[in-house]
Amino acid sequence: MGECHMPRPDLTINLAPAPLTLTVVAEKLGISASTLRTWERRYGLGPQRQTGTHRRYTVAEFELIQAVVELVRSGVSPSDACQSIQDANAVYHANQKTVCVNSIIEHAKASNATALHADLDILITRDGLLKTWSEYIQPALVALQTDPEGELPGTAPRALLSQMTLQVVREVANCKECQPKETNDAVVVVSDEPRSLLAHVIGVSLHWEGIPTRLMPALLPVTALHADVPSMLEKTRHLVTKLNAKILVICGSIIHNEAYLRELENTDLQLVLVGPARPNYLPANAIQMRTASGCVEEVVATLRGY
């Protein structure tokens, strides 16, 4: 992924940024206004406007010119730089129209990691990580898991999609905009193995909101053969204490482990249980959210006093 533009959860009305004047764009990019006029005249690289009106650059138009400036400074000629960036932009927008759940499934089945990465890159840049997860990645994972045609030996479409999802989530996490602030409002996310990818999505989304977050090493599904509550509690309490966490997010089958939840009930922690099925026992200090988006919004609202 290139520069990160992942939208935050829609907690407030997002107003479109005001367009930039020619002078402001020139100052921000460190080039002359006459150079911008020349590039517009020669290469068509400029804002959309009617003849006789002042130039006003949208964020997208500014970023396009910024990419050209970076290429020129690296030694590429202005004409080649403009052509390269405009071609890439055209391909991006053409692909943007065709990305859907089916294209993700097709690329995963074809073991086309490059195309799969491009799909997720486009979706996250356009719609944000949380919406991409809930409306595209999750449905694709479910479809691949229940595919009546099965899988060819040596292929693992669902595993590939999970791998590429984790890769782009990591790229989002590495964006400079995604660094948590220095604050005492830390969050711990606990999950079992099947929901570890969901935990990463929630964790990075909270980081994007400036909230320090740590994930517990994936715990095994809580079954009759594995119900080691004391061990789970010890690991949970250790990390919560170390970070002085205020909120504990719990994903997967663990939300149905009554013994684990009861032990966490008499604490100062706010519990956020994430899952579509209502747990058999809901502690007094817990709230259940059905989706990752709902979880992130609830945590942000709680810590910021909304």
UniProtKB/TrEMBL annotation:
Residues 24-87 form the HTH merR-type domain. Pfam families: MerR_1 (PF13411). GO terms for molecular function: DNA binding. InterPro entries: DNA-bd_dom_put_sf, MerR-type_HTH_dom. GO terms for biological process: regulation of DNA-templated transcription. This is Transcriptional regulator, MerR family. Transmembrane segments: none annotated.
